[in-house]
Amino acid sequence: MLGAIAGDIIGSVHEYRGTKTTQFELFHPHCQFTDDTVLTVAVADCLLHRKHYVSTFHEYYLRYPGAGYGRGFAEWASSRRTEPYNSWGNGSAMRVGPVGWAFDTLDEVLAEAKRSAEVTHNHPEGIKGAQATAAAIFLARQGRSKQEIRKSIEQWTGYNLSQKLDEIRPSYTFNESCYGTVPQAVIAFLESEDYEDAVRKAISLGGDADTLACITGSIAEAFYGNVPDFIAQRVMDLLELRLRTVITDFSHRYLPDRKY
Are 214 and 4 in contact (CB under 8 A)? Predict the structure, then answer.
């Protein structure tokens, strides 16, 4: 799951900047974790300790109120609402990464991804974006090829994953929807050569940079087998103890070969 968090942190300084290149300083001095990290860790916490998603999301929002949440989520969490608000935004996909690691079958992954999404994002597109991301992570960690992952996600979701980044990039702009983020993030992974290249390619689209890199990074970690040590160490150094503790505990249970 550190792949998602690293993508968020690296992409944080590119938010709203429309970066259209892969040539940038990987860790800018102003890089920081955002709501993508906070809610990814919240999902991991729920899976580790069998917590309820609604109360845990409220808890994490109150603990990290300035992390840059979308307006809909911020209004939902600050008012302690318990009913979903029919969102189709990419927040459901950015936070779902841990689900792709915590189960042994694709059916279980899809079911839990739906549960994690629908407490806020109960719109069909919000649920589909979360399920597509979690499924890609699961298939990648199962050793499926990129072609197999592409075919499976296309057949199940109807997403068009045949476009090339060079075709998407010129006209692509900030987009907070699942259907305007998840396919592009998956394509960035499909065209990548390694973890770092995947994150750079996601950011180079010039869209919702931290979320694109978070989703792409979560899949790339599963496919390439790890987050490079120098990235993992820098990311852990930028997180506070509470977040690091959940990441470490989750990794010990579900990713025992990791060093975090």
Answer: yes
